[in-house]
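User: Run a structure prediction on this.
Assistant: Running it now.
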Amino acid sequence: MSLTTTQIRSAKPKANGKPKKLGDGFGLHCVVSKTSKTWIYRYKRSNGKETTATLGKFPDMTLQQAREERLFRRKMLIDGIDPNAHQKESKLSTQNANMSTFKDVFKQWHDNNKDNWKPNYQKDIVIRCERHIFPYIGNRQIGDIDIREMIKVLQILSIAGTIDTLGKVKGVSSRVFKYAVGMGIIDSDPTRDISTDLFKKKKTKHLAHITDPKEIGGLLRMIDTYKGSYQIENALKIAPYVFLRPNELAGLEWKEVDFDNSIIRINPMRMKMKTTHLVPLCKQVLKILSTLSLIESNSKYVFPSIRSSARHISPESLRAGLRRLGLSNEEMTTHGFRHMASTRLYESGFRGEVIEIQLAHKQRNKIAAAYNHAEYLKEREKMMQSWADYLDNLKDDIG
Protein backbone atom coordinates (compact mmCIF):
# COMPACT_ATOMS: atom_id res chain seq x y z
CA MET A 1 0.00 0.00 0.00
CA SER A 2 1.38 3.41 -0.97
CA LEU A 3 2.30 5.97 1.65
CA THR A 4 0.86 9.44 2.02
CA THR A 5 2.62 12.58 3.20
CA THR A 6 0.21 12.79 6.13
CA GLN A 7 1.16 9.28 7.29
CA ILE A 8 4.85 10.15 7.17
CA ARG A 9 4.43 13.43 9.04
CA SER A 10 2.48 11.76 11.86
CA ALA A 11 4.61 8.61 12.06
CA LYS A 12 6.55 7.87 15.25
CA PRO A 13 9.11 5.18 16.19
CA LYS A 14 7.96 1.92 17.75
CA ALA A 15 6.80 1.96 21.37
CA ASN A 16 10.14 0.47 22.47
CA GLY A 17 11.96 3.32 20.77
CA LYS A 18 13.27 1.26 17.87
CA PRO A 19 12.96 2.67 14.32
CA LYS A 20 9.80 1.92 12.37
CA LYS A 21 9.78 1.10 8.65
CA LEU A 22 7.03 2.56 6.45
CA GLY A 23 6.92 0.81 3.08
CA ASP A 24 5.89 2.53 -0.17
CA GLY A 25 6.52 -0.43 -2.45
CA PHE A 26 9.15 -1.37 -5.07
CA GLY A 27 11.94 -1.24 -2.49
CA LEU A 28 11.27 2.25 -1.11
CA HIS A 29 10.58 2.78 2.57
CA CYS A 30 10.90 5.50 5.18
CA VAL A 31 12.73 4.66 8.41
CA VAL A 32 11.26 6.64 11.30
CA SER A 33 13.56 7.09 14.30
CA LYS A 34 13.49 9.43 17.29
CA THR A 35 15.61 12.02 15.47
CA SER A 36 14.86 11.64 11.78
CA LYS A 37 12.82 10.13 8.96
CA THR A 38 15.11 8.69 6.32
CA TRP A 39 14.32 7.43 2.83
CA ILE A 40 15.89 4.03 2.13
CA TYR A 41 15.84 2.17 -1.19
CA ARG A 42 16.42 -1.60 -1.12
CA TYR A 43 17.42 -3.33 -4.35
CA LYS A 44 19.23 -6.38 -5.71
CA ARG A 45 22.62 -6.00 -7.32
CA SER A 46 23.57 -7.87 -10.48
CA ASN A 47 24.96 -10.73 -8.35
CA GLY A 48 21.52 -11.16 -6.74
CA LYS A 49 22.54 -9.84 -3.33
CA GLU A 50 20.32 -7.25 -1.69
CA THR A 51 21.69 -3.89 -0.62
CA THR A 52 20.31 -0.53 0.42
CA ALA A 53 20.83 3.10 -0.53
CA THR A 54 20.05 6.16 1.56
CA LEU A 55 18.20 8.67 -0.62
CA GLY A 56 17.63 11.59 1.76
CA LYS A 57 15.65 12.74 4.75
CA PHE A 58 12.01 13.75 5.00
CA PRO A 59 10.81 16.51 4.66
CA ASP A 60 13.92 17.84 2.81
CA MET A 61 13.17 15.08 0.31
CA THR A 62 9.40 14.85 -0.19
CA LEU A 63 7.46 11.66 -0.85
CA GLN A 64 7.17 12.58 -4.54
CA GLN A 65 10.89 13.29 -4.82
CA ALA A 66 11.71 9.98 -3.13
CA ARG A 67 9.50 8.17 -5.62
CA GLU A 68 11.19 9.97 -8.52
CA GLU A 69 14.59 8.98 -7.12
CA ARG A 70 13.40 5.38 -6.77
CA LEU A 71 12.27 5.40 -10.42
CA PHE A 72 15.59 6.94 -11.48
CA ARG A 73 17.55 4.21 -9.68
CA ARG A 74 15.33 1.42 -11.01
CA LYS A 75 16.04 2.67 -14.54
CA MET A 76 19.74 2.54 -13.75
CA LEU A 77 19.39 -1.08 -12.61
CA ILE A 78 17.59 -1.95 -15.85
CA ASP A 79 20.56 -0.45 -17.71
CA GLY A 80 22.93 -2.63 -15.68
CA ILE A 81 24.21 0.20 -13.47
CA ASP A 82 24.55 -0.19 -9.71
CA PRO A 83 23.04 3.04 -8.24
CA ASN A 84 25.31 3.00 -5.17
CA ALA A 85 28.45 2.51 -7.24
CA HIS A 86 27.33 5.23 -9.61
CA GLN A 87 26.70 7.61 -6.71
CA LYS A 88 30.13 6.93 -5.22
CA GLU A 89 31.75 7.62 -8.58
CA SER A 90 29.78 10.84 -8.89
CA LYS A 91 30.85 11.94 -5.41
CA LEU A 92 34.48 11.13 -6.16
CA SER A 93 34.28 13.04 -9.41
CA THR A 94 32.76 15.98 -7.55
CA GLN A 95 35.49 15.95 -4.93
CA ASN A 96 38.22 15.79 -7.56
CA ALA A 97 36.70 18.83 -9.21
CA ASN A 98 36.73 20.68 -5.86
CA MET A 99 32.92 20.62 -5.79
CA SER A 100 30.79 20.90 -8.92
CA THR A 101 29.57 24.26 -10.15
CA PHE A 102 25.88 24.86 -10.77
CA LYS A 103 26.57 24.70 -14.50
CA ASP A 104 28.31 21.30 -14.10
CA VAL A 105 25.35 19.82 -12.25
CA PHE A 106 22.89 21.40 -14.69
CA LYS A 107 24.67 19.63 -17.55
CA GLN A 108 24.50 16.28 -15.72
CA TRP A 109 20.80 16.79 -14.95
CA HIS A 110 20.02 17.94 -18.49
CA ASP A 111 21.88 15.03 -20.12
CA ASN A 112 20.10 12.59 -17.81
CA ASN A 113 16.62 13.88 -18.67
CA LYS A 114 16.75 15.30 -22.19
CA ASP A 115 15.68 12.06 -23.89
CA ASN A 116 12.32 12.38 -22.10
CA TRP A 117 11.74 15.91 -23.45
CA LYS A 118 10.72 17.28 -26.80
CA PRO A 119 13.61 18.98 -28.72
CA ASN A 120 12.10 22.44 -28.34
CA TYR A 121 11.75 22.02 -24.59
CA GLN A 122 15.38 20.91 -24.35
CA LYS A 123 16.49 24.09 -26.11
CA ASP A 124 14.16 26.32 -24.08
CA ILE A 125 15.64 25.09 -20.81
CA VAL A 126 19.21 25.71 -21.97
CA ILE A 127 18.39 29.17 -23.32
CA ARG A 128 16.54 30.10 -20.12
CA CYS A 129 19.51 29.10 -17.97
CA GLU A 130 22.07 30.81 -20.21
CA ARG A 131 20.12 34.07 -20.00
CA HIS A 132 18.85 34.14 -16.44
CA ILE A 133 20.86 31.74 -14.25
CA PHE A 134 24.39 31.07 -15.52
CA PRO A 135 25.48 34.75 -15.56
CA TYR A 136 24.85 34.91 -11.79
CA ILE A 137 25.48 31.45 -10.31
CA GLY A 138 26.66 29.30 -13.22
CA ASN A 139 30.29 29.19 -12.08
CA ARG A 140 29.50 29.11 -8.37
CA GLN A 141 30.14 25.86 -6.49
CA ILE A 142 26.65 24.46 -6.10
CA GLY A 143 27.15 23.68 -2.42
CA ASP A 144 27.93 27.33 -1.68
CA ILE A 145 24.72 28.71 -3.19
CA ASP A 146 22.23 29.64 -0.48
CA ILE A 147 18.66 30.93 -0.34
CA ARG A 148 19.72 34.58 -0.19
CA GLU A 149 21.72 34.27 -3.38
CA MET A 150 18.83 32.61 -5.20
CA ILE A 151 16.42 35.33 -4.02
CA LYS A 152 18.72 37.96 -5.58
CA VAL A 153 18.72 36.06 -8.90
CA LEU A 154 14.92 35.84 -8.93
CA GLN A 155 14.42 39.45 -7.82
CA ILE A 156 16.15 40.61 -10.99
CA LEU A 157 13.31 39.02 -12.97
CA SER A 158 10.69 40.32 -10.53
CA ILE A 159 11.91 43.92 -10.95
CA ALA A 160 11.89 43.49 -14.73
CA GLY A 161 8.26 42.35 -14.51
CA THR A 162 8.89 39.03 -16.29
CA ILE A 163 6.87 37.01 -13.78
CA ASP A 164 6.26 34.02 -16.04
CA THR A 165 9.99 33.69 -16.65
CA LEU A 166 10.65 34.05 -12.91
CA GLY A 167 8.47 31.04 -12.18
CA LYS A 168 10.15 28.95 -14.87
CA VAL A 169 13.65 29.93 -13.74
CA LYS A 170 12.82 29.06 -10.14
CA GLY A 171 11.39 25.74 -11.31
CA VAL A 172 14.46 24.76 -13.35
CA SER A 173 16.84 25.85 -10.58
CA SER A 174 14.93 23.77 -8.05
CA ARG A 175 15.03 20.68 -10.26
CA VAL A 176 18.81 21.00 -10.64
CA PHE A 177 19.29 21.45 -6.88
CA LYS A 178 17.03 18.45 -6.15
CA TYR A 179 19.05 16.38 -8.60
CA ALA A 180 22.19 17.43 -6.71
CA VAL A 181 20.53 16.38 -3.44
CA GLY A 182 19.67 12.98 -4.92
CA MET A 183 23.25 12.54 -6.15
CA GLY A 184 24.59 13.34 -2.68
CA ILE A 185 26.37 16.49 -3.82
CA ILE A 186 24.41 18.85 -1.56
CA ASP A 187 22.10 18.36 1.41
CA SER A 188 19.11 20.52 0.48
CA ASP A 189 17.49 22.66 -2.21
CA PRO A 190 18.06 26.37 -1.44
CA THR A 191 14.98 27.38 -3.45
CA ARG A 192 12.63 25.18 -1.40
CA ASP A 193 11.59 27.83 1.13
CA ILE A 194 11.54 30.84 -1.20
CA SER A 195 8.07 32.36 -0.85
CA THR A 196 6.29 33.78 -3.88
CA ASP A 197 5.26 36.71 -1.65
CA LEU A 198 8.77 38.09 -2.12
CA PHE A 199 8.05 38.90 -5.74
CA LYS A 200 5.58 40.83 -7.85
CA LYS A 201 2.39 39.03 -8.82
CA LYS A 202 1.41 38.52 -12.42
CA LYS A 203 -1.50 40.72 -13.40
CA THR A 204 -4.40 38.74 -14.78
CA LYS A 205 -4.91 39.58 -18.42
CA HIS A 206 -8.36 38.75 -19.70
CA LEU A 207 -8.34 37.87 -23.37
CA ALA A 208 -10.74 39.97 -25.40
CA HIS A 209 -14.01 38.25 -26.21
CA ILE A 210 -17.59 39.04 -27.15
CA THR A 211 -20.44 37.84 -24.92
CA ASP A 212 -23.44 40.00 -25.83
CA PRO A 213 -25.85 37.81 -27.86
CA LYS A 214 -26.43 40.46 -30.54
CA GLU A 215 -22.69 41.02 -30.91
CA ILE A 216 -22.12 37.27 -31.13
CA GLY A 217 -24.61 37.09 -33.98
CA GLY A 218 -22.84 39.96 -35.72
CA LEU A 219 -19.46 38.28 -35.24
CA LEU A 220 -20.71 35.04 -36.83
CA ARG A 221 -22.12 36.94 -39.80
CA MET A 222 -18.79 38.74 -40.22
CA ILE A 223 -16.94 35.40 -40.27
CA ASP A 224 -19.26 34.19 -43.01
CA THR A 225 -18.06 37.09 -45.18
CA TYR A 226 -14.36 36.20 -44.80
CA LYS A 227 -12.47 36.37 -48.08
CA GLY A 228 -9.21 34.50 -48.03
CA SER A 229 -7.88 30.96 -47.99
CA TYR A 230 -10.40 28.20 -47.44
CA GLN A 231 -8.26 26.93 -44.54
CA ILE A 232 -8.54 30.13 -42.49
CA GLU A 233 -12.17 30.69 -43.52
CA ASN A 234 -13.33 27.27 -42.34
CA ALA A 235 -11.15 27.23 -39.21
CA LEU A 236 -12.74 30.54 -38.17
CA LYS A 237 -16.21 29.17 -38.92
CA ILE A 238 -15.57 26.11 -36.76
CA ALA A 239 -13.82 27.95 -33.90
CA PRO A 240 -16.98 29.23 -32.11
CA TYR A 241 -18.48 25.72 -32.05
CA VAL A 242 -15.67 23.51 -30.73
CA PHE A 243 -14.07 25.38 -27.76
CA LEU A 244 -10.56 24.35 -28.83
CA ARG A 245 -7.48 26.42 -28.10
CA PRO A 246 -6.06 28.14 -31.23
CA ASN A 247 -3.08 25.76 -31.53
CA GLU A 248 -5.33 22.71 -31.02
CA LEU A 249 -7.67 23.85 -33.79
CA ALA A 250 -4.94 24.98 -36.19
CA GLY A 251 -3.13 21.64 -35.88
CA LEU A 252 -6.22 19.44 -36.15
CA GLU A 253 -5.41 16.16 -37.97
CA TRP A 254 -7.77 14.04 -40.04
CA LYS A 255 -6.93 10.97 -37.95
CA GLU A 256 -8.38 12.84 -34.95
CA VAL A 257 -11.76 13.24 -36.70
CA ASP A 258 -14.10 10.26 -36.28
CA PHE A 259 -16.93 10.78 -38.76
CA ASP A 260 -18.62 7.48 -37.89
CA ASN A 261 -19.07 8.46 -34.24
CA SER A 262 -19.32 12.22 -34.80
CA ILE A 263 -16.46 13.06 -32.47
CA ILE A 264 -12.96 14.55 -32.46
CA ARG A 265 -10.26 12.86 -30.37
CA ILE A 266 -7.38 15.26 -29.84
CA ASN A 267 -4.02 13.54 -29.37
CA PRO A 268 -2.92 13.94 -25.71
CA MET A 269 0.49 15.26 -26.79
CA ARG A 270 -1.25 18.26 -28.38
CA MET A 271 -3.30 19.07 -25.30
CA LYS A 272 -2.24 21.42 -22.51
CA MET A 273 -3.18 18.82 -19.89
CA LYS A 274 -1.53 15.95 -21.85
CA THR A 275 -4.68 13.81 -21.88
CA THR A 276 -6.93 12.76 -24.76
CA HIS A 277 -9.66 15.35 -25.32
CA LEU A 278 -13.03 14.49 -26.84
CA VAL A 279 -15.07 17.03 -28.80
CA PRO A 280 -18.58 15.84 -29.72
CA LEU A 281 -19.34 17.08 -33.23
CA CYS A 282 -22.52 19.04 -33.74
CA LYS A 283 -24.28 18.73 -37.10
CA GLN A 284 -22.99 22.13 -38.24
CA VAL A 285 -19.31 21.31 -37.72
CA LEU A 286 -19.73 17.79 -39.08
CA LYS A 287 -21.08 19.28 -42.30
CA ILE A 288 -18.10 21.64 -42.68
CA LEU A 289 -15.57 18.88 -41.99
CA SER A 290 -17.31 16.51 -44.42
CA THR A 291 -17.02 19.13 -47.15
CA LEU A 292 -13.34 19.76 -46.34
CA SER A 293 -12.61 16.04 -46.51
CA LEU A 294 -13.49 16.10 -50.22
CA ILE A 295 -10.63 18.51 -50.98
CA GLU A 296 -7.53 16.65 -52.18
CA SER A 297 -4.85 18.44 -50.19
CA ASN A 298 -2.57 15.41 -49.71
CA SER A 299 -2.11 16.53 -46.12
CA LYS A 300 -2.70 14.85 -42.78
CA TYR A 301 -3.96 18.19 -41.49
CA VAL A 302 -7.54 19.44 -41.73
CA PHE A 303 -6.17 22.96 -42.26
CA PRO A 304 -2.91 22.56 -44.22
CA SER A 305 -0.58 25.50 -44.67
CA ILE A 306 -0.90 27.35 -47.95
CA ARG A 307 2.88 27.08 -48.42
CA SER A 308 3.29 23.38 -47.60
CA SER A 309 0.83 20.53 -47.12
CA ALA A 310 3.33 19.01 -44.67
CA ARG A 311 2.52 21.78 -42.19
CA HIS A 312 -0.69 23.19 -40.76
CA ILE A 313 -1.83 26.79 -40.51
CA SER A 314 -0.50 28.69 -37.52
CA PRO A 315 -2.59 29.97 -34.60
CA GLU A 316 -1.35 33.45 -35.55
CA SER A 317 -3.00 33.12 -38.97
CA LEU A 318 -6.38 32.73 -37.24
CA ARG A 319 -5.76 35.91 -35.27
CA ALA A 320 -4.73 37.64 -38.50
CA GLY A 321 -8.00 36.44 -40.04
CA LEU A 322 -9.97 38.25 -37.33
CA ARG A 323 -7.95 41.40 -37.95
CA ARG A 324 -8.70 41.09 -41.67
CA LEU A 325 -12.39 41.15 -40.76
CA GLY A 326 -11.80 44.46 -38.99
CA LEU A 327 -11.80 43.17 -35.41
CA SER A 328 -9.11 44.72 -33.20
CA ASN A 329 -7.13 42.81 -30.59
CA GLU A 330 -9.16 44.65 -27.92
CA GLU A 331 -12.44 43.43 -29.41
CA MET A 332 -11.86 39.74 -30.10
CA THR A 333 -9.09 37.13 -30.05
CA THR A 334 -9.16 33.54 -31.29
CA HIS A 335 -8.81 32.39 -27.69
CA GLY A 336 -11.82 34.58 -26.95
CA PHE A 337 -14.15 32.04 -28.58
CA ARG A 338 -13.56 29.79 -25.54
CA HIS A 339 -14.35 32.59 -23.10
CA MET A 340 -17.43 33.49 -25.14
CA ALA A 341 -18.74 29.91 -24.92
CA SER A 342 -17.92 29.57 -21.23
CA THR A 343 -19.68 32.80 -20.28
CA ARG A 344 -22.86 32.13 -22.22
CA LEU A 345 -23.08 28.44 -21.25
CA TYR A 346 -22.78 29.21 -17.55
CA GLU A 347 -25.44 31.89 -17.90
CA SER A 348 -27.64 29.40 -19.75
CA GLY A 349 -27.60 27.01 -16.80
CA PHE A 350 -25.38 24.20 -18.04
CA ARG A 351 -23.52 22.35 -15.32
CA GLY A 352 -20.07 23.67 -14.47
CA GLU A 353 -18.41 20.24 -14.51
CA VAL A 354 -19.62 19.60 -18.06
CA ILE A 355 -18.49 23.02 -19.30
CA GLU A 356 -15.05 22.79 -17.67
CA ILE A 357 -14.37 19.28 -18.98
CA GLN A 358 -15.39 20.33 -22.49
CA LEU A 359 -13.04 23.31 -22.24
CA ALA A 360 -10.29 20.87 -21.16
CA HIS A 361 -9.61 22.92 -18.05
CA LYS A 362 -7.70 21.42 -15.14
CA GLN A 363 -10.32 20.73 -12.51
CA ARG A 364 -9.92 22.68 -9.30
CA ASN A 365 -11.50 20.15 -6.95
CA LYS A 366 -10.53 16.57 -6.25
CA ILE A 367 -13.90 15.10 -7.19
CA ALA A 368 -13.95 16.67 -10.65
CA ALA A 369 -10.27 15.81 -11.18
CA ALA A 370 -11.07 12.12 -10.80
CA TYR A 371 -13.12 12.05 -14.00
CA ASN A 372 -11.48 10.90 -17.20
CA HIS A 373 -11.89 12.43 -20.65
CA ALA A 374 -15.05 10.43 -21.43
CA GLU A 375 -17.04 11.59 -18.40
CA TYR A 376 -20.39 13.27 -19.06
CA LEU A 377 -20.02 12.48 -22.77
CA LYS A 378 -23.75 12.16 -23.45
CA GLU A 379 -24.42 15.39 -21.60
CA ARG A 380 -21.59 17.08 -23.48
CA GLU A 381 -23.04 15.92 -26.81
CA LYS A 382 -26.36 17.54 -25.96
CA MET A 383 -24.64 20.72 -24.77
CA MET A 384 -22.52 21.06 -27.91
CA GLN A 385 -25.50 20.63 -30.23
CA SER A 386 -27.59 23.02 -28.14
CA TRP A 387 -24.77 25.58 -28.25
CA ALA A 388 -24.42 25.20 -32.02
CA ASP A 389 -28.16 25.71 -32.56
CA TYR A 390 -28.04 28.73 -30.25
CA LEU A 391 -25.22 30.26 -32.33
CA ASP A 392 -27.13 29.67 -35.56
CA ASN A 393 -30.22 31.35 -34.11
CA LEU A 394 -28.11 34.37 -33.12
CA LYS A 395 -26.56 34.51 -36.57
CA ASP A 396 -29.97 34.36 -38.27
CA ASP A 397 -31.47 37.02 -35.99
CA ILE A 398 -30.72 40.27 -37.81
CA GLY A 399 -33.48 42.20 -36.09
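Residues 97-198 form a domain with the DNA polymerase; domain 1 fold (CATH 1.10.150.130).
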